[in-house]
Amino acid sequence: MTTLETIQxxxxxxxxxxxxxxxxxxxxIQGLAESIQAVGQxxxxxxxxxxEGFIIIDGHRRAQAKRLIGHRTIFAIVESPGQQAAAxxxxxxxxxxxxxxxxxxxxARAMARLMQETGWSAAETAAKLGFPQSKVTKLxxxxxxxxxxxxxxxxxxxxxxxxxxxxxxxxxxKQAQMAQRFLGGxxxxxxxxxAVRQERAERRIAEGSGKPRKAIVPRRTSRxxxxxxxxxxxxxxxxxxxxxxxxxxxxxxxxRARKARGQGLSLDTFTKLLRxxxxxxxxxx
Length: 285
Hints:
The protein is α/β, with parallel strands linked by helices and 285 residues long. The chain is built from twelve helices and nine strands.
């Protein structure tokens, strides 16, 4: 069916947001408002009619900028009344993702709403949006987490793969503990994946559905030398033979060095303190 669209000048107070986007950059709004003040509204927003008003599909920032500078009307492409709400939500999600992008949690909420409106599966939703199915599945994992935890992960930039791994943990206490270890930097993404696998294996054993596995003892390396050029190098010893362990050791050392600098310590004093605590801290050399 052909969709009829018209461009109209609407009362800006009749426009409402669909709440897909969870936050908007205030500085960006201010900059856009100044641009509209200088050259006018170059592109209409896109809306569909809802009762006596209109729902914004695309152009949330433009509408906010027009309100900021006191404009009472706005040019809009009005989609025909026959269009389904799901189609409009789909357009809104795609339009937002192609611009500033949504937070992972906002994307998850938008996808869940789209699936509810259409009855689409995760695979069908992924195909319609042009995303890999794995991306949709992992984003939806945010909605399986406690609300506060999902908000914190999303606000702190944790990706969908992190939410997916945490959602696999059934014990809420262990789930919260692992999330805080990841957010606090004690677990890398790979470390979290391994910890979740271990937790799930232990749960299967406790439930009698799994066989005990031999504990995996990480292989340790006696010495790693990382040449830095110009005659410089970084030498570490006694760490696990993995890049994650190498990075974690460097990050720990850097954090300590910055703290020592803030205390006014000299390099000699700092290295002496490291030597004094090496045996109890795992052996920074």
